[in-house]
Amino acid sequence: KLKFPKGSGKITEVFTDCISAGGNRHLDTFERLSSNHYFIKDYGAISPVFFDCLVSELTHRGADITVAPEPLCPELYRGIYVDGADVSFTVFDDNFCQKLDRNQLPYKIINTARFCDTEKFKRSKLFYKYADKSAKTLFSGAIKQLGIASQAHDKIESLYYGITDFSIVDTLTEKLKKR
Question: What's the CA gap between 103 and 51, in Å, rounded?
Answer without folding.
Answer: 27
